[in-house]
Design goal:
The protein has about 70 residues and is mostly helical. It is built from two helices and no strands. The longest helix has about 40 residues. The N and C termini lie far apart (about 75 Å).
Amino acid sequence: MKKSVLLMLLAMAVFGMSGCDSDGPAERAGESVDSAVDSMKDKASDVSDSLSETVKDTCDEVGDATDSNIDC
């Protein structure tokens, strides 16, 4: 009994792993989507950093122009 269960599990593992040799169209599409999402995250982070820096610079300039101590 134990041998047959062990053999069945071993066979399932071998057959399961043999199906993972090549990427199918869905796998390639998923990788493409993942890459596009990562690229968009990087661009959004760059835009956020740039916008944050611009807001701080503007706040500093307003504080200088009005001779006030604005906490930016």
